[in-house]
Specification:
The complex is a heterodimer of chains A (about 425) and B (about 300).
Chain A: E1 3-9, H1 16-26, H2 32-44, H3 53-56, H4 60-65, E2 72-77, E3 82-88, H5 95-103, E4 107-113, H6 120-131, E5 136-142, H7 151-167, E6 174-179, H8 203-209, H9 212-215, E7 223-229, E8 241-245, E9 251-252, E10 256-260, E11 264-273, E12 276-278, E13 280-281, E14 286-291, E15 302-305, E16 311-322, E17 333-338, E18 341-354, E19 361-363, E20 373-386, E21 397-401, E22 408-414
Parallel strand pairs in A: 1-3, 1-4, 4-5, 5-6
Antiparallel strand pairs in A: 2-3, 7-8, 7-15, 8-14, 9-13, 10-11, 10-15, 11-12, 11-14, 16-20, 16-22, 17-18, 17-21, 18-19, 18-20, 21-22
Helix pairs in contact in A: 5-6
Chain B: H1 2-12, E1 15-16, H2 20-35, E2 39-42, H3 47-60, E3 69-73, H4 79-92, E4 96-100, H5 101-106, H6 124-135, E5 139-141, E6 158-161, E7 189-192, H7 200-210, E8 221-228, E9 231-234, E10 249-255, E11 266-268, H8 274-283, H9 301-307
Parallel strand pairs in B: 2-3, 2-5, 3-4, 5-7
Antiparallel strand pairs in B: 6-7, 8-9, 8-10, 10-11
Helix pairs in contact in B: 2-3, 7-8
Classes of the chains: A alpha+beta (about 425), B alpha/beta (about 300).
Amino acid sequence: MNVLKIATAGSVDDGKSTLIGRILYDTKSLTDDKLEAIEEKSKQRGFDYLDFSLATDGLVAEREQGITIDVAHIYFSTRKKSFIIADTPGHIEYTRNMVTGASTAQASIVLIDARNGVVEQTYRHFFINNLLRIKDVVIAINKMDLVDFSEEKYNSIKGEIEYLASKSEYKNQNLTFIPMSALQGDNVVTKSENTPWYKGETLLHHLEKLDAAAINEVSQVRFPVQTVIRPKTDEYHDFRGYAGKIYGGDFEVGDAVTVLPSLTKSTIKSIHFFDKEFAKAKNGSSVTIILEDNVNVSRGDMLVKVSEEPKITKELNATICWMDKEPLKASQKYYIKHGVNDAQAKITQLSSIIKTDFSGKINNPSELELNQIGDIQLKLSKPLLVDAYNENKSNGSFILINPKTNNTVGVGFIR
Amino acid sequence: MWFTYLKDMIMNQRTIQVDALESEAIYIFREVVAQFEKPVLLFSGGKDSITLVRLAQKAFFPAKIPFPLMHIDTGHNFPETIAFRDRLVKELGVDLIVRDVQDNIDSGRVKEETGRYASRNMLQTETLLDAIEEFGFDACIGGARRDEEKARAKERIFSVRDDFGQWDEKNQRPEVFDMLNGKIALGQNVRVFPISNWTELDVWSYIKAEDIEIPSIYFAHKRKTFVRDRMIWSADDAVVFRDEEEEVVERMVRFRTVGDMSCTAAVLSDAVDIAKVVEEIRDSSISERGARIDDKRSEAAMEKRKQQGYF
């Protein structure tokens, strides 16, 4: 079950649904009953082609309006790998959904209509991929059939994106450009004869080659304790295990660790997964860890390797994407959830709104509205154990929760 | 002495890389127990809820599963499923709560459907909501998956429901990274779906790899059946309405999904063991819920049921 999560972004007009439909169709992932349902609905609506968006737009309101409102998850697999596509809407009013879909993605596809080239939305998609530090980004230059598969057109769009990338702070991004026609299937699953000048791979072949495990972020190891396991049975009378998921690297029996926030030192005595013991546990594994010493550890504490401690702080600088109708304002209070830890947070400063078209910042705004991205400062009711998002994604992000509605209202990236 | 030495040697070679989907599900289970006061696992006896039980075991081992299982029994279940359920619960030493749809029918709170397509599937919702209120459950863990159906593809891992169990599909909380917001107001509860990101094939592959026992109806067996609307129905006249001209024939079949007898169609199959089942699923050209009669009622059948408090 080697799963690669991919986010796609693009508006309806860019041919995103057609692309997803094409992938599902060419990889034979659409079952007969689903295909039949799509054929029937397409006919009912008087289309002379298969409307693949019917496969992904799951809500009545989406089908009525012909738009994607919420993130849909689409599953398909080839013999080599399983994929989950988070199909996210592209319009500015759905920036938050795009951030949501991209937050768990290991790779991303940005669609561009070859006729229109780089448009305002492309900037936004590119910006969000940078903000989230998505390592592998495919720039799918679509509808090549409508520009006579022109290499010149392809190169000019490629050049524009490369110029954007040169302005971005994030330098480790792998950009892959693929000329395609999702409608006719060129370079999606099968290599096109219409683009002899293109020496690269098809989209699916490229995605198959990305290693899902290797894309798992490697950084300093973080083990946030979710819960303490104490069976208190005769057989396991003294068992006191710390249950959690390992992020950023591996843990081994014998590793010297620091327990945060108490800064107590200990050593890993054993690592358990279900009814077996292991000498080593790899990045991304949900396991249970027992320490040599009888130290006080509870939910929200963190085990890290000695001398790799994160920052313990009651103040945060962060970039935030706002997700609620009620705008963010300075001096407002929220709950903050950072990993498995909760605290209260007060916005001490709203410094700027960042324009997602790379055209700069608006300084000292009075509020941050739904779908806007800005820089803020926060004061916390208790110290949190944090890294900068650039150094550690899982330990560098947080959400804000409105205490009146309990809704998740923003996602933050620690600077 | 040499024995301990040998054990150490073997131990040192043992590295664990928990599969991403399994790791995610275990993480979700642990968040549920940490964030909620009274969770419950909704257990139907189907393969998805059996998989959930194994994952819950793994999440808390060597401690016992720290919440009860609850079965909303329509009274129209396959007898094999019920026998399996009782055995599993005994083995695990966990509490099982059973609430019967029949009670609500007897007291007149809900009205049983009649006619050709009569099913108690819809009636489960009322019984479930009553049970949630009776026990004060704040989190109900279910085995729904996003690949099953297009309304479920939009579902969150923590899905907030109001007093009436309603799903407000247009106003869902964003779920970013793996942070799960379980904050709710009094009277609300959360439906939790730890295997949201699994596909049907993932579930079957897991059952095979883990050697998990499942009810016998998932394997090919001889059964009295009849055909309606190109689907194979189980011929049990006490539970499933059948026209006289609908001819009963014994066929070699198995079930891909285990709901009520009245809303679950069988498929022709000779997959008598788990390896053959996995092979069959891999090559299948019909989706799992293609055999669910309850989904065929309309294009938005699932979305409507979910708005009313269905799983």
